[in-house]
Amino acid sequence: MSDSDSNGFLWFLAGLGIGAAVGILYAPKSGRETREQILQAAEDGREAVTNRARQYRDQAGQWVDKSKQYVDSQKEQIKSAFEAGKSAYREATEAEKPAKG
Protein backbone atom coordinates (compact mmCIF):
# COMPACT_ATOMS: atom_id res chain seq x y z
CA MET A 1 0.00 0.00 0.00
CA SER A 2 1.50 3.37 -0.92
CA ASP A 3 1.78 6.22 1.54
CA SER A 4 -0.61 8.41 -0.44
CA ASP A 5 -3.30 5.71 -0.32
CA SER A 6 -2.99 5.25 3.43
CA ASN A 7 -2.90 9.01 4.03
CA GLY A 8 -6.00 9.47 1.90
CA PHE A 9 -7.79 6.71 3.76
CA LEU A 10 -6.85 8.22 7.14
CA TRP A 11 -8.16 11.59 6.00
CA PHE A 12 -11.35 9.88 4.88
CA LEU A 13 -11.80 8.33 8.32
CA ALA A 14 -11.04 11.66 10.02
CA GLY A 15 -13.59 13.39 7.80
CA LEU A 16 -16.13 10.70 8.56
CA GLY A 17 -15.67 11.23 12.30
CA ILE A 18 -15.80 15.01 12.06
CA GLY A 19 -18.85 14.86 9.82
CA ALA A 20 -20.62 12.58 12.27
CA ALA A 21 -19.79 14.90 15.18
CA VAL A 22 -20.96 18.01 13.33
CA GLY A 23 -24.11 16.21 12.24
CA ILE A 24 -24.92 15.31 15.83
CA LEU A 25 -24.30 18.85 17.07
CA TYR A 26 -26.44 20.55 14.42
CA ALA A 27 -29.26 18.02 14.33
CA PRO A 28 -29.98 17.30 17.96
CA LYS A 29 -32.22 14.38 18.69
CA SER A 30 -33.18 12.52 21.82
CA GLY A 31 -30.41 10.67 23.65
CA ARG A 32 -31.58 7.29 22.44
CA GLU A 33 -31.82 8.45 18.80
CA THR A 34 -28.39 10.05 19.05
CA ARG A 35 -26.87 6.86 20.48
CA GLU A 36 -28.47 4.84 17.70
CA GLN A 37 -27.10 7.26 15.14
CA ILE A 38 -23.62 7.06 16.67
CA LEU A 39 -23.77 3.27 16.70
CA GLN A 40 -24.90 3.21 13.08
CA ALA A 41 -22.08 5.59 12.07
CA ALA A 42 -19.57 3.43 13.94
CA GLU A 43 -20.91 0.31 12.23
CA ASP A 44 -20.69 1.99 8.82
CA GLY A 45 -17.11 3.05 9.57
CA ARG A 46 -16.20 -0.47 10.70
CA GLU A 47 -17.66 -1.92 7.50
CA ALA A 48 -15.72 0.60 5.41
CA VAL A 49 -12.48 -0.29 7.19
CA THR A 50 -13.19 -4.02 6.86
CA ASN A 51 -13.91 -3.69 3.13
CA ARG A 52 -10.77 -1.62 2.57
CA ALA A 53 -8.66 -4.13 4.50
CA ARG A 54 -10.13 -6.98 2.44
CA GLN A 55 -9.27 -5.11 -0.77
CA TYR A 56 -5.68 -4.55 0.39
CA ARG A 57 -5.33 -8.19 1.45
CA ASP A 58 -6.62 -9.39 -1.93
CA GLN A 59 -4.29 -7.02 -3.76
CA ALA A 60 -1.33 -8.19 -1.68
CA GLY A 61 -2.25 -11.79 -2.46
CA GLN A 62 -2.26 -11.00 -6.17
CA TRP A 63 1.18 -9.38 -5.88
CA VAL A 64 2.50 -12.44 -4.05
CA ASP A 65 1.12 -14.75 -6.74
CA LYS A 66 2.65 -12.65 -9.53
CA SER A 67 5.98 -12.56 -7.70
CA LYS A 68 5.97 -16.35 -7.31
CA GLN A 69 5.20 -16.78 -11.01
CA TYR A 70 8.04 -14.41 -11.93
CA VAL A 71 10.52 -16.22 -9.67
CA ASP A 72 9.47 -19.60 -11.06
CA SER A 73 9.89 -18.26 -14.60
CA GLN A 74 13.36 -16.94 -13.80
CA LYS A 75 14.34 -20.26 -12.20
CA GLU A 76 13.28 -22.10 -15.35
CA GLN A 77 15.25 -19.74 -17.58
CA ILE A 78 18.36 -20.10 -15.43
CA LYS A 79 17.99 -23.87 -15.36
CA SER A 80 17.61 -23.97 -19.16
CA ALA A 81 20.65 -21.76 -19.63
CA PHE A 82 22.69 -23.93 -17.26
CA GLU A 83 21.67 -27.11 -19.05
CA ALA A 84 22.51 -25.55 -22.44
CA GLY A 85 25.93 -24.49 -21.13
CA LYS A 86 26.57 -27.96 -19.71
CA SER A 87 25.58 -29.55 -23.00
CA ALA A 88 27.79 -27.18 -24.99
CA TYR A 89 30.72 -27.94 -22.67
CA ARG A 90 30.25 -31.70 -23.12
CA GLU A 91 30.11 -31.31 -26.89
CA ALA A 92 33.22 -29.16 -26.88
CA THR A 93 35.20 -31.56 -24.70
CA GLU A 94 34.05 -34.57 -26.73
CA ALA A 95 35.17 -32.89 -29.95
CA GLU A 96 38.64 -32.25 -28.51
CA LYS A 97 39.24 -35.91 -27.52
CA PRO A 98 41.27 -37.83 -30.07
CA ALA A 99 39.45 -40.61 -31.81
CA LYS A 100 40.48 -44.09 -30.71
CA GLY A 101 41.23 -46.40 -33.47
UniProtKB/TrEMBL annotation:
Keyword Membrane: yes
Annotated transmembrane regions: 6-27
Keyword Transmembrane helix assigned: yes
One Pfam family named in its UniProt record: YtxH
Key words, A-Z: Membrane, Transmembrane, Transmembrane helix
PANTHER family per record: GENERAL STRESS PROTEIN
Protein name stated in the entry: Gas vesicle protein
Lineage: Bacteria, Pseudomonadati, Acidobacteriota, Terriglobia, Terriglobales
